[in-house]
Amino acid sequence: MKARAKPRGATAINHQPTAVPHKHLLAVAVLSACVAVAASLAPGGQVEANREAVSENNEQEQTVARILAATEPAVEVLAQPATGGDTAPDATAAVDSALAARAQAPASEPPAGETAPEWVEQTVRSGDNLSLIFKRAGFDNGDVHQVVYESPEGKRLERIFPGQTVAFLAGNEGELIGVRHVISPLETMTYQRAEDGLFAAEHTLRQPEVREAWASGKITSSLFMAGQDMGLSQSKILELANIFGGVIDFVLDPRKGDTIHVVYEEHYLDGEKYRDGAIIAASFTNQGETFNAYRFEDSAGDVSYYNEDGVSMRKAFLLAPVDFTRISSNFNLRRLHPIYKTTRPHRGTDYAAPTGTPVYAAGDGRVVEAGYSRANGNYVFIQHGNRYVTKYLHLHKRKVKKGQRVAQSNVIGTVGSTGAATGPHLHYEFLVDGVHRNPRTIHKELPKAKSLPKTEMPSFRNAISPASQQLASLQSGSRLALNQAGDNSQR
């Protein structure tokens, strides 16, 4: 790969010893020779010769020190006094020894004002690929190949989405030495060049801080409006409806004055809220009857919601396959058809809702029919076991195909007005052994919900105890905030 221009702000720091100029070494050698000749010609005894030798040695050491002092950074030279009869050390050898000592010394700190290379971020745009992103950062396809195909887990970098961040780190010569893919605020993949030239991968997962929050409210018009007034997000309101969907029809059952209490988690990163967590416990009081639900993970690792007696809140079928809508027509065997103007049995329930409203599978099953007819419009039929069939008519769009397996609350289509319909609504039918039954009352004859086994009950009661106390305090109005600082804001 060709070398690149050094990026702005990056400084190359070389910790190599500074060479002593050749002319300085020559001067030292000549000076040493002259001193030696003068010493041999001068008269005097052995004592005078020793004195002159010592003086000569000192002058050489001072000269070497001055030469080395002229090079940066300075090197400390330790003088070794000559003894009688020894010859003076060679100046060139002394310089070489000092430079060798400097080479072995620890590297000095970068001069003040210089900064280390920094990560440069690129935001993934719609339609981007790795080649485009690397090119914007100043790198080529060779770099892409090294990171993606020669690095462990490198192919994970190919799974990029708009809004994510890819950061690059360049070396002193502009070469690529690091890539950082920020997948989410919680997950990061970092690829950094190792000594062997290959990129090593590091996967980092952050754990958010989990805080407990609560909310209480009253129904004035619908669960959706009440949830908004309580400060709950739309996803949290839908989650609440799914929890109670087996015991409450949120189209028909809620009444003005019904109360809701929710204890849930919030996830924080760096002191700021990142997202909502799971609902820990909730209660819904409908027409004087209170339903409580508690989140519990059993010994097998399965998570579900149960009432205080360990009975699952998840029933075999939802009471209503749509949420937060108004009822437009009930089950009626002698209804006057609004289009054909004839008395025809209405063997189902119509849920009026805006076009595009999600329609859910009422229970687990298999799609046995999915198509279109002049009367039914877009329709989906689901078989649940051997005895039960649910039908969904007048859909705007179908989201499933014949033969497909579905789970309760899976979206199977959207509300529409296709076929013989006067306006957007869902026509919902429920059949038992091939006979139409009223969807609003059949739930009383459906299989009972499963309960936790007796072996799980001690763990269950221990796990839900704090949440149970919290719900009781919310229901009584005392609003005791368990596991929280006393200054938590009330919702």
Descriptive account of the structure:
The protein has 491 residues and is an alpha+beta fold. Among the domains are: 83 residues; 86 residues, Nuclear Transport Factor 2, Chain: A; 120 residues, Distorted Sandwich (Glucose Permease (Domain IIA)), CATH 2.70.70.10. 23% of the residues lie in helices and 30% in strands. It has eight helices and 22 strands. The strands form four sheets. Strands 11, 14, 15, 16, 17, 18, 19, 20, 21 and 22 form a ten-stranded antiparallel β-sheet that branches. Strands 1-2-3-4-5 form a five-stranded antiparallel β-sheet, covered by helices on one side. A five-stranded antiparallel β-sheet has the order 6-7-8-9-10, sandwiched between helices. A hairpin with a 5-residue loop joins strand 2 and strand 3. Helix 1 runs antiparallel to helix 2, helix 2 packs across helix 3 and helix 6 crosses helix 7. The chain is globular, with a radius of gyration of 41 Å. The N terminus and C terminus are likely disordered.
